[in-house]
Amino acid sequence: MKKSSLAGGLLAALILGGGIGHAFAEDVTVATWGGTYTEKQRKSIFDPYTAKSGSAVLDAVYTGGLGQIQAMIESGNTTWDVIQMGAPEMLNACAQGLIEELDTSKLSSAADFKDPGITKCGIGAIGWGMVIAYNTKATGDQPKSWSDFWDLKKYPGKRAMKREPQNNLEGALLADGVAPADVYKVLSTPEGVDRAFKKLDEIKADIQWWEAGAQPPEWLANGSVAMSTTFVGRILEAQAEGAAIKFGWPGSLYNVDYWAIVSGTKKKDAAYAFLSYATSPEAQAEFSKIQPVAPVNLKASALLPAERIAIMPVGDNLKEAVPTDSNFWNDNLEALTERFNAWASK
Amino acid sequence: MASISIPVEQSGWAGLMKVCRPLMRHGLLLPCLLFMAFIFVWPILSLLAKGVYSPEVRDTLPQTAAAVLAWDGAGDPPDAVYAALVADLRVADRRVVANAGRRLNYEIPSYRSLLIKTASALQNSSTEPPRQQLTTIDAKWQDRTFWTAMRRAAPAVTPYYILKALDLEQKDGGGIGKVKPEEATFVDVLGRSLSISAVVTGICLVLAFPVAFRISAASPRWRGLLLLLVLLPFWTSLLVRTSAWVVLLQDNGIVNSLLLWSGIVDQPVHLIFNRIGVYIAFVHVMLPFMILPIYSVMVGISKDYTRAAYSLGASGPRTFYKVYLPLVWPGLWSGCLLTYVIVVGYYITPLLVGGSQDQMLSYFIAFYTKQTVNWGLASALAILLTTCVLVLVGLYGLLGRKSQIVVKA
Which of A69, A61, A65, A86 has its CA nearest to residue A2? Predict the structure, then answer.
């Protein structure tokens, strides 16, 4: 499937390139999350771009962290040109010079992005929500908040959380009664961190940790956990398959994933050309039509039908959401990850 | 080992052959040795070196490193230190500053942001004294803990990672002490890796001994079939086998359904994402590694020995302890060593069926390699694990030799 579309892309590139008469366009290698996610990006962004520009898009799988990029750059053999990455990693990579500072004059849609949608090294690719989802059979009455997530008496059953400190520490503080606006203020103090871990202690024995995004819907569907933090997209897929799972927007944590250009790429122009297309309102809207993530380009929502907007972290759905503070995580990710690992392994 | 010195009285063809034969004999090993050296030994050594060699700060901020080491670490840092940092940051490349920042961030979180912010805020033309320039950019530069942290990170050869792997750290006032209890991880995890391996080895031994005995005592036709059954799991992917346990053992999986249906329990038993699941899956994966070495020794033991013991009037148990057990001892030892060493460094099984309290050292090695790019700490943990395995193999050598004496006696 991947191969044939790639071949198709190359063919289209040849025909278009030859037909219009300009030189054969350079291909560009995009590292992104892989799986059906990449397939949907191919359908909505990569292939239309190839058809328009004549430049083929090759994809590679990026699994998070900075190990892959660091190794690539240290060995002097950069095979990726563009990468989609999470916010703290993007900021970290930016500080370490692993990704390029963006020249906004080369990005045609840069003006349609507002902070934090655009930063020094990254331009928003998708907005996504980490929400609380629940098995409707296990919880009956609908849990609505992080306090409910912590309420093991009212909603008995295991809880699933991602094995990392991000989003979980915020959730713990929200459950402990910290106002959404103050979460990072509290978390920036040692006492606040202690408070979050102490709150997590309350449910520690009932937490089942997940690592892959596919785990929460599966566990929720088969009833091995009653509630889970999860990505919205995964829940919608499971609902479509008839699983008794629901989720709520209040208390969701809003995150942005960014596009960035890998340092030392030899195809910088091709990378900018690709990013200009990938961040256009049309491309972002097209992708949001088939994947339940929000566009970051401010003009893209207008191109989406209302029923699609309803299932996206955008507009009213973000009213009671907490935007994650990437700068906080950039500074504290290592230290808090260490603390988290020590805590979780005891 | 044959000597390669040429005896004086033997010269000519015969002498040449005498030299060449052992050379040729060893020469045949050469391709494998070279392969191992380049593909295995060299990369591993260079990776392990990262656990003690961390020159980022010295290379990026050479003047600062020298100045801060010249300072005795007590009281306020001298002006020379500030001047050196300003001079270093003015000429340093942004990417390498970030590298040094990463190393410093391990000492104090937010040090990286501070360093990068300072590097980009420094003005070349400023005539202010360096101390003032830095403290204007960020008041943190007045805090001497940032400078003592710099002092710890300045030498290229650092004990930081090894200490960290042992839950220790260099204290601000000098000396080495334990890290805060809420940050201590690795000693526990190492102890856990060793104890999980011991339990798995013990269970495997108890299960494998009768199986190996039965196979070795079976008729040749049955023996082939039984061995096939032992080997069968090897032909299925490890991932598939481990994931199958998830399906079987989960709260509403087959095992729990059977238990509930039969009325043995009235609530599902948690069998997965905890230690029980790890033991079950591990024993399943490791059993062939225990059965095969024991079987291979058992099958070579002639029945005449036990018959002789019986005919001399020894009881069944006495025959077993005095005659049979010493004979199978080498097989038991190699089975245990093989199982123990493989389990202690295992990654995928605890990852898939364990909870966060069941992860072993390899999980953290992988975590620091892939996720946070803290290769120094990953290497230090690998050194820790390798040392443990080497000690175990050494003990095995000692005890194994002793056990052979027992056999001879």
Answer: A61
- A156 interfacial to chain B (CB closer than 8 Å): no
pLDDT at A3: 44
Partner residue facing B355 (CB), from A64, A98, A209: A209
Please give the share of chain A, as a percent, with pLDDT higher than 70: 93
- Cα atoms found within 13 Å of the Cα of residue A19, Cβ hemisphere only: 10
Amino acid at B222: W
CB-based contacts of A106, cutoff 8 Å, min separation 6: A272, A276
On whether both B270 and B397 belong to a single domain, the answer is yes
Establish, for the pair of chains A and B, how many residue pairs have beta carbons separated by less than 8 Å. Answer: 83
Residue A158 exposed, middle or buried by CB count within 10 Å (0-12, 13-18, 19+): buried
Which residues of chain A neighbour B352 with C-beta distances below 8 Å? none
SS3 A249: strand
Across the interface, do A346 and B371 touch by the CB < 8 Å criterion? no
Residues B25 and B74 in one domain: no
CATH number at A2-127+256-309: 3.40.190.10
Q: Domain range holding B339?
A: 187-408
Q: Which of A197, A263, A334 has its CB closest to that of B105?
A: A334
Question: Which residue does chain A place closest to B375, by CA atoms?
Answer: A67
C-beta atoms of A341 and B364 within 8 A: yes
Q: Do the Cβ atoms of A95 and B182 come within 8 Å?
A: no
Domain ranges of chain A: 2-127+256-309, 128-255+315-344
Q: Tell me whether residues B372 and A208 touch, CB distance under 8 A.
A: no
Predicted TM-score of the model (pTM): 0.81
CATH code for A128-255+315-344? 3.40.190.10
CB within 8 Å: B185 and A342:
yes
Chain B within 8 Å of A341 (Cβ-Cβ)? Answer: yes
How far does chain A reach from its first CA to its final CA, in angstroms?
Answer: 45
Measured between beta carbons, which residues in chain B are less than 8 angstroms from residue A334?
105-106, 109, 372, 374
A250 or B25, which is more confident: A250
Q: How confident is residue A257, by pLDDT bands cut at 50, 70 and 90?
A: very high
Of B139, B158, B177, the position where a domain reaches its end is B158
Nearest CA distance, A232 vs chain B (angstrom): 24
pLDDT in tens, A260-318: 999 989 999 999 999 999 999 999 999 999 988 999 999 998 999 988 888 888 888 88
Distance of alpha carbon B312 from alpha carbon A29, whole angstroms: 79
Q: What is the mean pLDDT of chain B?
A: 88
Q: Are A69 and A262 in contact (CB under 8 A)?
A: yes
Omega before residue A116 within 30° of 0, cis: yes
- Is residue B269 domain-resident? yes
B172 within domain boundaries: no
Per the model's pLDDT, the better-predicted residue between B206 and A338 turns out to be B206
Task: Please give the full DSSP string across B362-404, using - where no structure is assigned.
Answer: HHHHHHHHHTS--HHHHHHHHHHHHHHHHHHHHHHHHHHHHHH
